[in-house]
Design brief:
Blueprint (H helix, E strand, L loop, with lengths): L1 H5 L6 H13 L7 H27 L1
Length: 60
């Protein structure tokens, strides 16, 4: 668990995803894991959607 506490603050979408991947490994030891990580997961979904729209607009 020390790894999670000492993990640097994510600065971009990729780093947020890396952090979520790491903490998912420890989810069995974290009470209310889903409740805690849902805001980060939702953030990634929103950012991914915006990026997809931008890329689609560039293609069309």
């Amino acid at each position: 668990m020390d790894v999670i506490v000492k993990w640097p603050v994510p600065k971009n979408m990729h780093e947020v995803q890396q952090f979520l991947d790491l903490v998912t490994f420890y989810q069995q030891f974290i009470k209310n894991f889903v409740r805690i990580t849902t805001p980060l997961s939702n953030l990634l979904k929103k950012l991914n959607e915006k990026l997809r729209k931008k890329k689609f607009c560039l293609i069309v």
